[in-house]
Amino acid sequence: ENIFDRSRMAPKTPIKNEPIDLSKQKGCTPERNPITPVKIIDRPQPDPWTPTANLKILVSAASPDMRDREKKKELFRPIENSEQSDTLDSLQYDIVDDSTVDEFEKQRPSRKQKSLGLLCQKFLARYPNYPLSTEKTTISLDEVASILGVERRRIYDIVNVLESLQLVSRVAKNQYCWHGRHNLSQTLKMLQNAGELQYGELMTCQHKELDLEYKFGERKKAIIPDSQDRPLLDFSESDCISASANSRKDKSLRIMSQKFVMLFLVSKTKIVTLDIAAKILIEETQDTVDHSKFKTKVRRLYDIANVLTSLGLIKKVHVTEERGRKPAFKWIGPVEFPENTDELRGHSPTSDPLPETQKGACAQYQTSATGKQRFTRHASFNTAQPCEATRRKVSSEPNSPHQERQDENCSKMINLASVCRQKIEEDTGSAKKSNITLPVSLLPVPGDSDFSVNPLPQAVFPVVQADVPSFSLPIGISSQASHPSMPAASKTENGKPTLVPNQPFLCFPSSSLFMLCGGLQENNLSEPLPTVGDLGSRSAEAQAAVPPTVCQKRSSQKCSSPSAPGDDEEPAAKKQTLEHSDLPISLVVPKKPSESPKAESSPGSVCSAAVHLETNNLDLASPSAPETANKESTKLLDCQEQGKQSQKKDPDDPPPGNEHISKENANQPFQPQYLYVQPTAGLSSFNFLFSANQAPGAISLAANQLPSLSVPCVMVPSAALASFPLVCSSSFTSPLSPVPDGSFSAAASTNFSMSSLASTTPVFLSTTAVVTPKVSPTPSADPQQPPHPALHLSPVLTRSCSAVKLDSPVCMGHPVTLVKLQQPSSAPLTPKSIRPAHHEAFFKTPGSLGDPVAWRKNEGNQTRNASSVQRRLEISSTSPD
DNA sequence: CGCTCCCGCCATGCC
DNA sequence: GGCATGGCGGGAGCG
């Protein structure tokens, strides 16, 4: 190798040079490395040097399909380096020779391009996040290694981490089974539960301080006596088949990965610094652990972190402490699922659902497992779940049809989880989580503006999720949805409209109203005020709801974007800058001066409220959606979609900037809150979307998430209703929608009227959902989706919204969620069937299109909501189905 | 200079 | 002994 390189020159990276060399020599090159016979055997010619070279070859060799696939993947994926993809492509496609070498060299090889994170992305790109139950994908390590042009060793690194999260399971010797993220939420939940047991105390203690979790890290050490326990979840091995053993040392990477994830899940701040993690993982509390050991651990953690980052579960941030800044990672994945689930389970006999439906080799996911799904979903919402009654409903509902866990492992996990859970509950008292009733607060808050719903950024997301499910549905919900009344509910189990016991909401059978909440501008306040009632719970709720970020934010504030601008945290500004750097994430940053610091109180409450609403919705609607929808996604939605998005992008650039912006502005956004009125019986075709918030910001829709929702039932606080002006319009369809009738004008008029009522708030009416799928498919540029693509709403909307531009970055932060009602007319779509063919379709078809897409997105993305969506869009654009 | 983390040697353990 | 795994840490890329 050296020889080569040297000759070539490339002092730095052999790789760079190589391309040329390889190509040339390749033919001849034989050398390959002898090192491991095996390897050699596997792949005959791989050039050790240039992974890319292999790639090229393979690609070229590969069928066109593959090629396309790859391309798409790259394009769509938010891969860190956009460049990278380019380079790759170029490389792949072209075979360059020496002449250009220099250039190429520069482009490609760099070390970054060979990073584990990138490799992992490529790896993940090869498999669907949510594979159909039917398709069981087996992964051949050798094959993947050769395709990706890396050594098998690297694949192990990736697979081990994925396995720890049950995204894959080992089937046999060189074979792994791809499960996708169907079980991710469950797994995370379990890990959370396990983590709470192990590290919970620590966290608890710490969380008060929060400021920078880091601190607590130390505590943890102290506290955790046995952190080391081992693998919390054994499932890793249990896999379906082989399971070979657990031999080897415990497979540290796997275990480390689980523990690492647990730390995030248990951490209130969701930020874990590497050193703390390393210390904890070292098990010992030995502070003194040798330095070398520590170093090694950290290295491993980087490996794990890279994979998790690729999965969109965490992102790199820097924590600034007194001493200086330390590398840390922030959890941006779904957070809450667990609780809900747990709760649910608790009620019911645990795990039943899960069991083994799938046992087979790889599992399938699927089915019914109501429990789980719910869990997940709920979880997402969750934390905030309101009443038990509600929950139950939820639980009953099948959120997503598929999902399911696979196998025994799952069951094990579940059991474990349940156990943990109980314990936890006892200790902690689930109460916190559980009770939250925010909804009320929302309504009341009248703030001034309009309805005054308090917006929570997060809320928005949740909504989305809810939506998703409905849409998705495998259940066919969509069609049903049209009727407000039951569909969803029916699915759910109950679905009956009624008052929710503890909640202040009224549930309308048909889904007459739907509230969406977005953060207000005001939300800036990082803290939510407790509005009306929830106060007490509020805090808790807030956490739950927003959990990740918002709540804590205050202290650390990282995210906040949506709502909170951070309070005043000291953290101050320094951090903010961070965001720029790569991603938006700076931990500290939060502060941003948001513009108006008003703190209205509401925000917090709002959020919570929103959450509740969502949950409710879910219940109602959920039935439908779930299937695809991932539980995860739901959660994700909430708080962090931004984060997620950002994550995705992170690595490279923040393409969009939106995120940045949003984050930067802490305030960002506002997330608009909307009231959605579904067509009730009388109004059948109308859907109203009111922005609860102030007009201005309110409207922005975020493209990303957007998926419309169809909510069968809407929960509205009774009182609230009174205060809200309802607008009725005759139905009109969105322009996009195929149906011409309503034409905008009509709509517009309607809107205006509304607006008048509401003040500026724009009202959005449409029968169809408005989706904002990203605008055009064009995204090429963006690495992934920009956080929120501009929405495309009817012109009218835009106007109304003028204050906020749809496109404006601000909006981005919040995805707009569209709520879609389902119209009777619309044929029931199956999620799949629906598939958005074209973007256009998207817009056009009222319900069906949007929905499906939407939900899918949701599903898919948990973390990457936007991205997935975009991808789809893009794809569709690119190639019509 | 320090953070990252790629690379691949080599131990472990099954067959 | 062969081979699959994967622990481990040297040392280089990179900011």
TrEMBL record:
- InterPro entries tied to this protein: E2F, E2F_WHTH_DNA-bd_dom, WH-like_DNA-bd_sf, WH_DNA-bd_sf
Domain of life the protein comes from: Eukaryota
Q: Name one GO molecular function term.
A: DNA-binding transcription factor activity, RNA polymerase II-specific
A single Gene Ontology CC annotation of this entry is: RNA polymerase II transcription regulator complex
Source organism per entry reads Toxostoma redivivum
Report the sequence similarity comment from the record.
Answer: Belongs to the E2F/DP family.
Q: Domain E2F/DP family winged-helix DNA-binding: where? A: 111-180, 248-333
**GO BP annotations, alphabetical order:** negative regulation of DNA-templated transcription; positive regulation of macromolecule metabolic process; positive regulation of nucleobase-containing compound metabolic process; sprouting angiogenesis
Region feature (Disordered): 1-47, 340-410, 528-666, 845-881
SMART domains, alphabetized: E2F_TDP
Q: Does the keyword Plastid apply?
A: no
Q: Where is the composition biased (Polar residues)?
A: 364-385, 552-563, 860-881
Top-level taxonomy: Eukaryota, Metazoa, Chordata, Craniata, Vertebrata
Q: What is this protein called?
A: Transcription factor E2F7
Which PANTHER family does the record cross-reference, listed alphabetically? TRANSCRIPTION FACTOR E2F (PTHR12081), TRANSCRIPTION FACTOR E2F7 (PTHR12081:SF25)
Signal sequence, renumbered to the chain:
none
The entry's keywords: Activator, Cell cycle, DNA-binding, Nucleus, Repressor, Transcription, Transcription regulation
- Here the segments flagged for biased composition (Basic and acidic residues) are 571-582
